[in-house]
Amino acid sequence: MRTYTNENNKITIFFAEDLLSEVKELCKEKGNLETGGILVGMYNLDLQSAIITKVLGPPSDSKYGRTTFVRGTKGVKKTLDSFWKEGQYYLGEWHFHPNALPIASSQDISQMNKIAKNVVYKCPEPLMLIIGQDYNDFLETFYISVYGNDLIEFIRS
Ligand SMILES: [Zn+2]
Fold first, then answer.
1. Is the pLDDT at 149 greater than 90, yes or no?
2. How far is the CA of 7 from the centre of ligand 1 (A)?
3. Which pTM value belongs to this model?
4. How far apart are the first and last CA of the chain?
5. Is 14 within the bounds of a domain?
6. What's the total number of domains in the chain?
7. Residues 132-139: what's their mean pLDDT?
C-alpha cells in the first residue's frame, strides 16, 4: 500500500500497489499517447483518508494525443451510479504523460476545476493522479483540486 499526504489539508491517500500496476499497464498499452480514466473509492468518516478501490480505464469515446487526452463520458454516469449503490464513489481522474514528468499542466488544472463544479461527479474536491515517465521508470503524482483553486500536490509518505 502506498500513502500520500499533503500539509495543507492533511488528507492521506491510500493506493494499493496492484492498482498502481493496473494503471501502469493501461499507460504502457498506449505507448506514446496520453490516456486516462477515473479513480473510484471512498473517504473515511473524518474525511481525512481517501482510499482508492478501483481504477477505471478510458471510456470508448476518449481521444488520445501525444500531449493531450480527452476522457470520454460514454457509460461513465451509469458505471458511477452502480458503484455509488455499493458505497464506492467518484474520487477523481488519472492520466498519463508519456515521456514527461507527472507535473500538472495548465490544461490539467482547468480540467479539474471544471470537474469540481460538475454536478454529475458530486465531488467538489476531486483528486488527480498523473503517471509520468523518466526513461523506463514510471512516476506518479497525486493532486487535489480544492474549491476551484490551484492544485495541491501530495508527497509520498
Ligand atoms: Zn496532464
1. no
2. 23
3. 0.95
4. 11
5. no
6. 1
7. 93
User: Is 145 within the bounds of a domain?
Assistant: yes
Query: What average pLDDT does the segment 25-47 reach?
Result: 95
- How many Å apart are CA 123 and CA 86, to the nearest integer? 17
- The whole-angstrom separation of Cα 29 and Cα 79 is 23
- 78: which 3 cell numbers? 451509469
- Top pLDDT among 148 and 116 is at 116
- Is residue 95 assigned to a domain? yes
- Ligand 1 centroid from CA 138, angstroms: 14
Q: 115 lies in which domain range?
A: 2-7+21-156
Residue numbers annotated as active site:
34
CA 94 – ligand 1 centroid, Å: 9
Give the contacts of 5 (CB within 8 A, at least 6 positions apart). 11, 12, 13, 154, 155, 157
Any idea which residue has 477515473 for its cell? 38
Instruction: State the CATH number of the domain containing residue 101.
Output: 3.40.140.10
